[in-house]
Write a structure and sequence with these properties.
This protein has 167 residues and is an alpha+beta fold. It contains seven helices and five strands.
Length: 167
């Protein structure tokens, strides 16, 4: 005789891109799955599901975090930012425009995570050197580029921001 156990469901409220979202989840549900499937924010991609590729990176309290390694219940009480949260309603953010200008994206699968990781870097280090950019991006894998265009994009965005501040 088989018995089926009812799945435990909890209600949590997540602060995502400045907006509160109350959702019901199983305690073991990953943040990446909640973001994509419960909130419909599909800019967060899932690649390896082991935290190696970095495609699922979001910002949690401003720091890059692998959303495939974090349970959604752990994110309650934290500020989560996805690519949708850094993209203006019309046009592109300065960093996104730099990625476009320097061909820092190819297929686009890794791009949201690269941009979020770069955003976090530029907040901490507004004028990074190439080594700092490469170190920050070392946890984000891209199979389409040699990373130079991505690094060029981040450095250009930093230079443009620096010029803007100096005006």
């Amino acid at each position: 005789m088989e018995t089926t156990k009812a799945r435990e469901v909890v209600q949590i409220t997540l602060q995502v891109n400045g907006e509160a979202h109350t959702v019901e989840v199983e305690p073991r549900m990953l943040l990446a799955d909640v973001i994509r499937h419960k909130l419909g924010l599909t800019g967060t991609h899932v690649g390896c599901e082991q935290g190696v590729c970095g495609a699922c990176t979001v910002l949690v309290d401003g720091e890059p975090q692998r959303s495939c390694l974090m349970f959604a219940v752990q994110a309650q009480g934290h500020d989560i930012t996805t690519i949708e949260g850094v993209t203006p309603e019309s046009g592109l953010s300065p960093l996104q425009a730099a990625f476009q200008k320097h061909h820092g994206l190819q297929c686009g699968f890794c791009t949201p995570a690269m941009i979020l990781t770069s955003e976090a870097l530029l907040r901490k280090h507004p004028n990074p050197d190439e080594a700092q950019v490469r170190e920050a991006l070392s946890g984000n894998l891209c199979r389409c580029t040699g990373y130079q265009f991505i690094v060029d994009s981040v450095l250009d965005a930093a230079a443009q921001a620096s010029k803007k501040e100096g005006q």
